[in-house]
């Protein structure tokens, strides 16, 4: 039975993404076959779709790091036909066919049954960005940060991960400071729960190795000089959770915040996180994410619109989350 998918191919140095008609025989190995209903476009997907960075490691391959849908067939214990499920990261869109397709087959160990509160569309409004945001919030909590400790900074606030991080933190009672390069989006950020908006340029240039304490903790989606300045301005025994490198992969920082202020830098990995951690994150999202705020972060496109979003997301022109209706 045939289905539509975006297919990445590469030959003689030429990289292309095309809408293709595939068959079940084109699917890869795995114990769970899923009728995909929605996917989403993350920053990582933007890199893959434009080949800016060689995210895709084998060709031909269906890109897309996320998918949500209904199980068609399963040989994996605990996963049954008819189950609503989500798959984030692992090898999706990198070494294994990803989410920009109407059907996929994946290892059962990658599959999570959706909490009942979420539809498959909701799951992709969250996607890897929201799941990673939840991992970051959990890291702050693990480090002992409570709302009483003080402000939490969120960099890259207008992006998908930043937006959901703000919504989560504000619902949990934290006072959130949002860093953005788009001051015209201040009302949107305040609606998500940000109490204060600052210009990202105050953090993006080379700064002092240690500076005045401004926040108890932070979630950084940017990296490079921004992360270095965030660390330099974090209060004593603060925690910074980092998972982004939009500005760069380098960290031109000093050891002073770690030694003089006992600051913790927690790296957040969403791709290979153990299944137990993923289950906890999705359970927390079901409890701690305001559905109304989730809806306000989301726009919808079909498979044909994915490549256009990819270019805009790399240019910082996409607000919040982009959900892909693969059947549109």
What are the defining features of this structure?
328 residues; alpha/beta; Quinone Oxidoreductase, Chain A, domain 1; 2 domains; seven-stranded mixed β-sheet; six-stranded parallel β-sheet; 10 helices; globular
In short:
The chain is built from 10 helices and 15 strands.
Tell me what you see in this structure.
It is a single chain. By secondary structure, the protein is an alpha/beta fold. The protein has 2 domains: 2-114 and 297-325, Quinone Oxidoreductase, Chain A, domain 1, CATH 3.90.180.10; 128-267, Rossmann fold (3-Layer(aba) Sandwich). 30% of the residues lie in helices and 28% in strands. It has helices spanning 43-50, 120-142, 160-171, 186-192, 201-204, 224-232, 256-260, 275-288, 291-296, 306-314; strands at 2-11, 14-23, 32-40, 66-74, 84-88, 103-106, 112-113, 152-154, 176-180, 194-199, 215-220, 234-242, 264-267, 298-302, 321-325. The strands form 3 sheets. Strands 3, 4, 5, 6, 7, 14 and 15 form a 7-stranded mixed beta sheet that branches. α1 crosses α10 (306-314) and α2 crosses α8. The mean pLDDT is 96.
